Each structure stands twice: as C-alpha cells, then as structure tokens.
Amino acid sequence: MKRIKLLEVRSELGAGTRGAGMGPDALRVACLNKGSDYFRRFNAVVVPDQNHVLFEKNHFPHAKYVDSIYSVQKGIASAVEQTLRFGEFPLVLAGDHSSANATIAGIKAAYPHKTLGVVWIDAHADIHSPYTTPSGNVHGMPLAAALGLDNRQHQRNEPDPETTFFWQRLQNLGEPGPKLTAEHLVYVVVRDTEDEENAIIEALGIKNFRLPEFRAKGPRQVAREIYEQLRFCDLVYISFDVDSLDSRFSKGTGTPVELGLDVPEAMALCRALLENDRVVCFEMVEINPTLDSENTMAKNAFDILEVATEAIEQRLRLDEVVSR
Questions:
Q1: Residues with Cβ < 8 Å from 298, sequence gap 6 or more?
Q2: Which residues contact 14 (CB under 8 A, 6 or more apart)?
Q3: pLDDT tens across 65-94, in order?
Q4: Checking DSSP bridges between strand 235-241 and strand 279-285, what pairing results, if any?
Q5: By the 8 A CB rule, do 52 and 155 touch?
Q6: Would you state the pLDDT for residue 237?
Q7: What span, in angstroms and rounded, lies between the C-alpha atoms of 104 and 73?
Q8: Euclidean distance between CA atoms 154 and 144, whole angstroms
Q9: Please, what are the averages of pLDDT over each run of 10 residues along the chain (324 residues)?
Q10: Which end of the chain has fewer CB atoms < 10 Å from its terminal CB, N or C?
C-alpha cells in the first residue's frame, strides 16, 4: 500500500506570535497522553527550520524574516516533491501557515502538468502580499504567493527592493509562475479578513463557505460542492489551520477567531474531503501550545488528525485494490 509520510516543519518565522514551532511536538504529547501509537506507525522527516534568526533583528518590515523563510520553504518544497515522487502521501505538520506556499510548490514540482485545486480551511484568507499586509507576517501571504498576486491596486506599503526580491522568489518557488488559479481555490469558514483581502477575493470570485452556509448544508454536502467546483482539477491539496475552529476550542493558536467550526464538524469535514481520490496532500498548521495551559488545542487537533489520517489510509487501501 502507498504509505503516508509525515513531514514535520517547526518553522514559526511567518507567525506574529511565538510558539507555533512547538506545534508538531504538542501533537506528539497529545498522542502520548491519548495512548495512541500514531507517531510510531509513520515515518517522519523533519524539515530544517531557521527559528534561531528570531533572536536577530528583522530587516524586512513588510515581510518579516522573508530571506530565512525562503530558505526554509525551499526545504519544504523539496521534501514534498520527493515524497510524492517516491509514491508516498505527504502529511505536513507545520508551525505557521506560510509553509503552505512551499507545500503547493512541491506538489506542482512533482506534477508540473497537472491542475491543482486547494481547499483552505482557516479563519483567515492569507491572501495578503508585502504591498498590502498590515502586520508584515508572512503567514498571511501564502495564497498570494501561490496565486502570483501582489494586489498592487490596493497597495498600502512600499516594500524595499530586497523584500520584493525575496517575495518574487517565494512566488517562483519550484516551478516559476503561479501554481493555481482563483477558481481552483475554495475557502471554508474564512471570517477574519482585511479590506484589501476582501477586495481581491470579491474581484477574483473566490468561493467561501461561511459558517451559516456550512451548518445549513452539513460537512458532506459542503465537501460535495467543493469537489463540484474543483471538478477540472487533477489533484487536490487540503490545508487545515486550527484557527478554523471556534475560539472556544482554539485558545492554543496565535490568532483565535470566534464563530468557527466545532471539533466534530472539523472531523466530519476532513473525513469527507479526504475520501476523494484526487487528494495528494494534507497539511495541519498553527498549533501554539505556549498559549494554552492544558494542551487542549493539540488534543483537539490530534483527534482531527487521527480521523483525517484514517480517511487517507482507507482511500489508499481502496486505490490499491482497484489498481490490482
């Protein structure tokens, strides 16, 4: 059977709050406390991080630590690409969400001629650029990088030439040019956005399943509609930010937001999405145990991760039976 490989990324350079680099370890603690053998069952590869640069001065106010982030992302993209080329399923456990740009680049490097769809389960749109960011945190930019967007028409910043140099490097990671198109991106429960993001989401017509619609239709119907929209995509990547959960369940993340999913809804959604045989990669990000005294966020996230992994394994077994 095709195997799952865990790619652990402890980089937190893209986050505004420190501690997300401990997310993969918090999941391991939750696993131990639950008495699960999860981390014994799968091979894990640790992608090098550069978190030591957080002790140095940041020289890029509109894309903080973007030079080091670029170096980390090259490693992530290469690990994802190699995993796929070896016929394995990359399951990425990452610190901050900026990693997703590299995951997407790695998928496209492995399958340059295939059309990629992205399902983004998150409280945030993550479609800022150095030209529009209010914070300079690169975890708010991975989709703009993957889509090749600068959103200059809503520019509020003047990034310096060094920043734009590294920003363009992020946009051209792996294969040069955009990795996906707006109609092949679907948001789920995105609800904390800035004006510049709202403008580009509206202009590009990006679909967002807000919570009332999600609850009215239920996880299975939402998954069906997502795949209907992505019907022309050969491959699908699912990115799960734990702040997609309601802030009652997600204290242990850098930017919790109310009016999100509860844990059973997130489990049901991930299960329904991961049963589809076009999914080639799943990523979970932004667990920050330093903000959470009981490791509750990681416990909830680990429960979701187990269900997601089970769905992937069932499907890989089914694929094997069909291909015999």
A1: 23, 26, 27, 29, 30, 252, 287, 289, 292
A2: 64, 65, 69, 96, 97, 98, 99, 137, 138, 139, 141
A3: 999 999 999 999 999 999 999 999 999 999
A4: parallel
A5: no
A6: 99
A7: 10
A8: 13
A9: 92 98 98 98 97 98 98 98 98 98 98 98 98 98 98 98 98 96 98 98 98 98 98 98 95 96 98 97 98 95 98 93 83
A10: C
CATH classification of the domain holding 236: 3.40.800.10
| Residue pair 278/234 in contact by the 8 Å Cβ criterion | yes
d(CA 247, CA 233): 33
- In DSSP notation, 208-269 reads EE-HHHHHHH-HHHHHHHHHHHTTT-SEEEEEEEGGGBBTTT--SSSS-BSS-B-HHHHHHH
Judge whether 66 and 167 are in contact, CB under 8 Å.
yes
Domain limits for position 241: 4-323
Q: What is the SS3 string spanning 4-70? A: EEEEEECCCCCCCCCCHHHHHHHHHHHHHHHCCCHHHHCEEEEECCCHHHHHCCCCCCCCCCHHHHH
CB 144 within 8 A of CB 118: no
Length of the chain: 324
- Report how many domains make up the chain: 1
